[in-house]
Write a structure and sequence with these properties.
Layout (H helix, E strand, L loop, with lengths): L1 H11 L2 H8 L1 E3 L9 E2 L2 H8 L2 H32 L5 H9 L6 H15 L3 H26 L3 H9 L4 H12 L1 H17 L2 H7 L6 H9 L5 H29 L1
Antiparallel strand pairs: 1-2
Helix pairs in contact: 2-13, 3-13, 4-7, 4-10, 4-12, 6-11, 7-10, 7-11, 8-9, 10-13, 12-13
Amino acid sequence: MPGRWLLVAWFALPLVPLVLWALANRWAFPAVLPQEWGLRGARTAIEAGAGSAFVASTLLGACVAALATPAGILAGRALALHRVPGRGVVAALLLAPLAFPPFAVAMGLDVLFLRLGVPAFPGVVLILTVLAIPYTTYVMRVGFGAYDVRFEEEARVLGASRWFVMLHVQGPLLAAPVATAAFLAFLVGWTDYIVTLLIGGGRLVTVPVLVGSYASGTGNQPITAALSVGAVLPPLLLLVALLAVRGRRS
């Protein structure tokens, strides 16, 4: 138990200055705490378009999760339960996007997407989905590795349809890995900066892009901190929901 709390403190302590900056109107050296408290940073962030940026990030993360999770389920099931010819090669290809820097990929595809006239949002979703599939595939491969297919076969013998098996057998047994895969895919879309900036060309303003624009200037610490604290909340809520799902399955 002490080790768990030490781990929580290890991750939480670096966030303390961020929260203090988000609640500070003025905090000058060498003061230990802000000299003037307030929410000027949050108000300025809202006026600068934080609301639309959060909507864009949420849609981006949801679209990436909606595409990468089913792809990971199919790939993970095939690799774990079926005899795939050249399984090692297929697994290597699925994990290959992790070996390439996102900056290089985005720079290489930026010109191509511009020539093809691909809109910013679909282009970003497409690339981030490819980058998220390795994570969803790995999680689902582990999930299917612990999955007993005999439950599925027994249900089919008793006359259950394919959809019934999917909803009432596979769904409950694989709820935890599917939720984990979807969470990781959402994080890929929610936290991305480089691909969104390059492929979006400044037309797609998400939370990381807005944070980066303010962090690059001086004197914007309260605004940057307010945006950063706000950016942590949705993944944190999803993580709590994920832990709740995994706890019920356990």
